[in-house]
């Protein structure tokens, strides 16, 4: 008899994982983030990054942006399960490759070192709209906005210029053009 | 100025407006203000259980047999944690429950106060939604919304946590506004095209099968009527999941019996070989599908379900119809009558070969067992129970294990809402309190809990509840002294290493019955079984029936681990040739 796989567990088929950005509009109420995040952990879905804030004070709506990876089937389940939550109004799903959508993350870098290193660090950041938020004789705090992988790269590259601390946000997303997601 | 009501009064005002007539509960510190008001609301009767888990399962039994939501009232801390099993059970089997729990006063929340726990945190993953009410002005609307969430769409449990200070505070009470939509979440998302496509598929199929589940029951008695109409109008064979039993008559010729792990040979083979599978209100659960990548390889699959997240979750389907079963079936029947008025006639020829094949599978008689004159075979006990009760409109609950599967196989249900069993969660100890709830909803009907001796001991204390409220439930224990299903798996999968599955010091169930002030009956031989069952049926008091059965009988047929539908183990004789080997052993 051939080796039998379980009848009662998932198949071992390797499927391609895609990265998706899921945007969820929710009522801004106690525990709502726990519901969304708990759904992900409880069902074994992945969260790569997370960004949450209230976006409409009057309607009391928060916008949650979650970067996740999964097979098409899993991503579909994520959307359907999210839509079942009572405080969820709508759910949008974008593929990371989607050209019609802007994704941005923000990072703060603290660089400590001599002046020439601080300069080099700033120069290295040039592509990503660097803003100096704080400046002393031996340190800089630089803010950049970029894509995830760009920030990943910068976090590595800036080490040689005296990077001592990184703080970064999850991704936020918005569609290009005049249309909004309904 | 309109009258002011306390939070505790508002709880009952809401229940009155929701037509609640029974609640199941247990008092404690954090719900005392609510219990204080109970006497002022005569239309609401409280059933005092002996453990909060019992309250939860009783409410489930009440809900499943009546179609109304079950209501639970428990205190904070342990009261709430004890009910978690029942909430999870209801969540898995889509049973509408509304649980009201007390909480420590708002100013003490987060201080590790006495009997404080994070109730909404703990119950978040096992309810459809839950609320912590921190403002008295939100209380009424929250409770009404709770009832709405529990009963609409795919039903399920909800919980409202009410701090003690809120129960004392006063405010005005407003009646619920009607027909408020939940964030625009309506439940029927299909159009006529899908129905036409379904009819097209049905008319093309030569090997069709209906696979129906608990969704048909949840959609109400009308859905079962429409299902019968559709099945008769098409002449197709039909099989049902554990939860769907009763939506189609169990003794009808078109019914192939239950499918799945312990389903019949004909049902599982028909599922495997069909060319069209019409899933109505079932969810492709792992106990149903067997090995998923060899599940019904040649069929077009249609899935009718109210919950969009059930579609394509486990099995990819070709046509999804999202909607309430009742609505979908009535549209389908309407279109069928308009477009293919002679469907049955034209279809008979087409499916005749299929029916021949099914008859061949049927002739295997997969539910047969080897009888005995010395010991009571558990299957025989269920068969006799069925024969002696089938003329009564009886309600059956079960615990979880072999007895549950035998009951599903050998007890034939002809009506919906007559069969209450824990399927999704598989909760041992479900059946006795569920029977209490069923009997509360149907005081004059015969209610039997088909039980195992191990399961029933988990919630045996609820016999005391049954006695207190004169609920003449019958606890029919198939006593084999083993956790039978555990023992069976150990025999088949763990080299007969019966680790901890034998209960060495069981109570004397007849004496136990006497201790609870109910009636104990024991049957030891097949010869006396009928008389004893009749004695039980003639007793208008709660009965514990200790049916001493064969200790080592196994439940067949069975789809073993790692196997598709068409490779079932049939019975003792067939076992040797299809031993479970290698990897299959380690996988559940």
What does this entry look like structurally?
The complex is a heterodimer of chains A (182) and B (588). Chain A has four helices and nine strands, in the order E-H-E-E-H-E-E-H-E-E-H-E-E. With 182 residues, chain A is an alpha+beta fold. In chain A, strands 5, 6, 7, 8 and 9 form a five-stranded antiparallel beta sheet that branches. In chain A, strands 2-3-1-4 form a four-stranded antiparallel beta sheet, covered by helices on one side. In chain A, a hairpin with a 3-residue loop joins strand 6 and strand 7. The radius of gyration of chain A is 20 Å and the shape is elongated. Chain B is 39% helix and 15% strand. Chain B has 25 helices and 20 strands. Residues 579-586 of chain B have low confidence and may be disordered. In chain B, helix 3 (52-66) packs parallel to helix 5 and helix 12 packs across helix 15. By secondary structure, chain B is α/β, with parallel strands linked by helices. A six-stranded parallel beta sheet of chain B has the order 3-2-4-5-7-6. Classes of the chains: A alpha+beta (182), B alpha/beta (588).
Number of helices of chain B: 25
Strand order of the largest sheet of chain B: 3-2-4-5-7-6
Count all strands of chain B and give the number.
Answer: 20
Mean pLDDT of chain B: 94
The biggest beta sheet of chain A reads: 5 strands, antiparallel
Number of helices of chain A: 4
Largest sheet of chain B: 6 strands, parallel
Class inferred from helices and paired strands of chain B: alpha/beta
Tell me, rounded to a whole number, the average pLDDT of chain A: 91
- The total count of strands of chain A amounts to 9
Radius of gyration of chain B: 25 Å
Q: Approximately what portion of the residues of chain A adopt beta-strand conformation?
A: 35-45%
Name the beta content range of chain B. Answer: 15-25%
Low-confidence blocks of residues of chain B = 579-586
């Amino acid at each position: 008899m051939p080796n039998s796989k379980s009848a009662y567990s998932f198949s071992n088929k390797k499927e391609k994982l895609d990265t998706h950005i899921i945007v969820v509009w929710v009522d801004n109420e106690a525990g709502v983030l726990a519901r969304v995040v708990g759904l992900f952990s409880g069902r074994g879905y992945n969260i790569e990054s997370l960004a949450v804030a209230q976006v409409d004070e009057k309607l009391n709506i928060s916008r949650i942006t979650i970067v996740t990876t999964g097979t098409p089937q899993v991503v579909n389940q994520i959307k359907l399960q999210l839509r079942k939550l009572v405080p969820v109004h709508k759910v949008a799903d974008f593929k990371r490759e989607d050209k019609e959508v802007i994704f941005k993350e923000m990072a703060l870098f603290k660089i400590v070192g001599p002046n020439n290193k601080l300069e080099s660090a700033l120069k290295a950041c040039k592509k990503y709209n660097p803003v100096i938020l704080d400046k002393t004789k031996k340190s800089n705090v630089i803010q950049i906005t970029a894509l995830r992988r760009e920030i990943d790269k910068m976090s590595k590259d800036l080490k040689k210029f005296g990077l001592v601390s990184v703080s970064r946000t999850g991704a936020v997303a918005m569609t290009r053009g005049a249309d909004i997601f309904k | 100025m309109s009258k002011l009501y306390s939070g505790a009064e508002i709880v009952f005002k809401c229940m009155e407006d929701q037509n609640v007539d029974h609640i199941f509960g247990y008092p404690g510190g954090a719900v005392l203000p609510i219990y204080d008001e109970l006497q002022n609301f005569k239309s609401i009767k409280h059933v005092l259980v002996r453990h909060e888990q019992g309250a939860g399962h009783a409410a489930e039994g009440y809900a499943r047999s009546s179609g109304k939501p079950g209501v639970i009232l428990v205190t904070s801390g342990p009261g709430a944690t004890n009910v978690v099993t029942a909430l999870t059970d209801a969540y898995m089997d889509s049973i509408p429950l509304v649980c009201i729990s007390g909480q420590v006063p708002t100013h003490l929340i987060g201080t590790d106060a006495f009997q404080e726990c994070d109730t909404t945190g703990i119950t978040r993953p096992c309810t459809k939604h839950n609320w912590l009410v921190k403002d008295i002005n939100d209380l009424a609307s929250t409770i009404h919304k709770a009832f709405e969430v529990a009963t609409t769409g795919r039903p399920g449990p909800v919980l409202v946590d009410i701090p003690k200070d809120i129960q004392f505070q006063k405010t005005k009470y407003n009646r619920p506004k009607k027909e408020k939509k939940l964030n625009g979440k309506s439940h029927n998302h299909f159009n006529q095209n899908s129905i036409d496509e379904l009819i097209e598929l049905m008319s093309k199929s030569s090997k069709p099968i209906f696979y129906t589940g608990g969704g048909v029951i949840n959609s109400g008695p009308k859905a079962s009527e429409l299902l019968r109409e559709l099945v008769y109008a098409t002449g197709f064979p039909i099989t049902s999941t554990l939860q769907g039993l009763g939506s189609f008559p169990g003794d009808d010729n078109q019914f192939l019996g239950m499918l799945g792990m312990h389903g019949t040979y004909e049902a599982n083979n028909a599922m495997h070989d069909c060319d069209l599978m019409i899933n109505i209100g079932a969810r492709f659960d792992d106990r149903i599908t067997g090995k998923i990548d060899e599940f019904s390889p040649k069929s077009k699959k249609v899935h009718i379900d109210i919950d969009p997240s059930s579609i394509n979750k486990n099995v990819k389907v070709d046509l999804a119809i999202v909607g309430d079963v009742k609505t979908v079936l009535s549209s389908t029947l309407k279109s069928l009558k308009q477009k293919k008025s002679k469907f049955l006639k034209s279809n008979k020829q087409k499916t005749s070969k299929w029916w021949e094949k099914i008859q061949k599978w049927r002739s295997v008689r997969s539910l047969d067992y080897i009888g005995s004159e010395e010991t009571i075979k558990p299957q025989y006990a269920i068969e006799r129970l069925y024969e002696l009760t089938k003329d009564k409109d009886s309600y059956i609950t079960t615990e979880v294990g072999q007895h549950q599967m035998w009951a599903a196989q050998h007890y034939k249900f002809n009506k919906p809402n007559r069969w209450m069993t824990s399927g999704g969660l598989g909760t041992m100890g479900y059946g006795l309190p569920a029977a209490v709830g069923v009997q509360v909803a149907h005081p004059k009907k015969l209610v039997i809990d088909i039980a195992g001796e191990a399961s029933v001991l988990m919630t045996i204390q609820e016999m005391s509840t049954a006695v207190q409220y004169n609920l003449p439930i019958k606890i029919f224990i198939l006593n084999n002294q083993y956790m039978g299903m555990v023992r069976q798996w150990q025999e088949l999968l763990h080299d007969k290493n019966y680790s901890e599955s034998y209960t060495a010091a069981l109570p004397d169930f007849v004496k136990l019955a006497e201790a609870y002030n109910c009636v104990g009956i024991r049957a030891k031989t097949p010869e006396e079984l009928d008389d004893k069952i009749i004695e039980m049926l003639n007793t208008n008091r709660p009965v514990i029936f200790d049916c001493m059965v064969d200790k080592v009988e196994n439940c067949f047929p069975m789809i073993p681990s790692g196997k598709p539908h068409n490779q079932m183990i049939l019975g003792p004789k067939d076992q040797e040739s299809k031993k479970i080997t290698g990897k299959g052993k380690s996988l559940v």
